[in-house]
Amino acid sequence: MSRGTVSSGTEWEAHVGYSRAVAVDGQVHVAGTTPVDEGGEVVGEGPYEQTKAALDIVDGALKEAGASVSDVVRTRMYVTDIDDYEAVGRAHSEVFDEVRPAATMVEVSRLVDEELCVEVEATAVVTD
Fold first, then answer.
1. Whole-angstrom Cα distance, residue 32 to residue 54?
2. Pfam families, alphabetically (predicted)?
3. How many other CB atoms are found less than 10 A from the CB of residue 73?
4. pLDDT tens digits along 100-123
5. 59: domain range?
6. Measured distance CA(128)–CA(120) in Å, rounded
7. Strands 21-24, 3-6: pairing kind
8. Rounded Cα gap, residues 116 and 7, in angstroms
9. What CA–CA distance (Å, rounded) separates 65 from 117?
10. Is the pLDDT of residue 1 over 70?
């Protein structure tokens, strides 16, 4: 079994004990990803911009783990207001339109920072 991890270097990874992504036996599992920059600041105002920023971070983690957006088979989106589904869905569609992974979007009561309105997880399968 092969296993590799990807770190974004944020304080949360060491504090909570997780990796941005874990690659194991042809699969890449990207942890719940919020639109937060290296300094811990929230990136983007509103659900569309935050989703785009979170998906950019997911894309970077996938690439570092040897996968790409086209390898994604599953996404999960956690939103603090389900009425934002159209904006979040539009950003998701712009990235995954041709890929069409299985996807779930659910409303949660809150995320780790009150400014955050979306968190995204992804699973990729690399067939090479």
1. 9
2. Ribonuc_L-PSP (PF01042)
3. 13
4. 999 999 999 999 999 999 999 999
5. 3-125
6. 25
7. antiparallel
8. 21
9. 26
10. no
Contacts with 25 (C-beta within 8 Å, 6 or more apart), sequence order: 1, 2, 3
At 68, list the tokens: 């790409």
Task: Name the pTM for this structure.
Answer: 0.93
Q: Where are the beta strands (DSSP E) in 80-117?
A: 102-107
Asked if 70 and 101 count as a contact pair (C-beta separation under 8 A), the reply is: no
The CATH number of whichever domain residue 76 belongs to comes to 3.30.1330.40
Rounded to 5 degrees, what are φ and ψ at 113?
-130, 135
The number of beta carbons lying within 10 Å of the beta carbon of residue 5 is 14
- Rounded to whole angstroms, the Cα distance separating 58 from 53 reads 9
The partner residues of 103 in beta bridges, in order of sequence, read: 75
CA dist., res. 24 & res. 2, Å (int): 6
**Helix-helix angle 46-64:85-96, to 10 degrees:** 30
Beta strands in the chain (DSSP E): 3-6, 21-24, 27-33, 72-79, 102-107, 118-125
